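Write out this protein's structure.
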Amino acid sequence: MNSDPIEKPQAAEGVRALAQSVASPLTRAAIFLVVTINAGPEHRAAIRSFCGDLAALLRAVEFRDIEGGLSCVMGFGSEAWDRLFGAPRPAELHPFREIRAGERHAVATSGDLLFHIRAKRMDLCFELATQIMARIGDAVSPVDEVHGFRYFDDRDLIGFVDGTENPRGEAAIDAVLIGEEDAAFAGGSYVIVQKYLHDLKGWDALPTEEQERIIGRKKLSDIELDDSIKPTSAHSALTTIVEDGKEVKIMRDNMPFGHAAQGEFGTYFIGYSRSPRTIEQMLENMFVGRPPGNYDRLLDFSRAVTGNLFFVPSATFLDTVAEDQPATAATSATPTPAEPSSSMPSEKDGSLGIGSLKGEISHE
């Protein structure tokens, strides 16, 4: 844990923001909860009121095991943002962009709110999800709930290590958090989620060498294949985005999930970035191909059944939302150094298990 005071980017002149826990370390368990907001002004008011109360709810559950690494990220879809907050709005927030290419289809599905709940223990995740729904259940309708688990040595159900190229430390913060390019929403992030179902029978029938060519990595060692033998259609090649000679990173926290008796085996993809364009380009490369037709052969065995784009505002923004008053993008004024509980954020400071916008995240 790191509770040292760290300089944070300016959201506006004289204003600083604390991020939600988008760059927290990977955990053993997670719940991905997507809901829509029911019609009616009373439901809008209930969700606005809940925004400022989520941190306290998290603390109450977290205190039952303070070493459990519990965190929660709350994101908002484009239509939900307009309904709840109006203008101003995040510069790049828009509905998820559906992609069709032959039999490959990146579907767009409904979803107003995302709760990404993580912990070392599933019971903590489940308890927080239960308490969230107890609080807002009358105001929302559930769309999807996935319980993810860490599979052996961070592998997907297809047998390959997932998340190898995640940035760390300062690089992770720079990859996922908005800065001066949209200063009113500094400390925010964009997140794209998709639920993929795998044809494991078909995949397991492939020779290991063919699987490795599709992924672009060795299955056992997780070492990336040399460019001289790695196909340009390999998953790792198509999801590498380079701009101005520099690779643009995102933060993945994918989780396996499934129902063995029902023959359902899948991966919940969740990617955070400071601009949705990065992940959208990855998906374009995967589904359409780079160049067109040179698509990700993993999609011959994996099918996307959901797709959403959400904006994750700063925790400070959530704290300023009032039930009946419009939320403002600007956050509260920077506290003076005499207020140590704010200038030295910790896991118990009401910021959703958040670290500051620069430096190490305050989780183990």
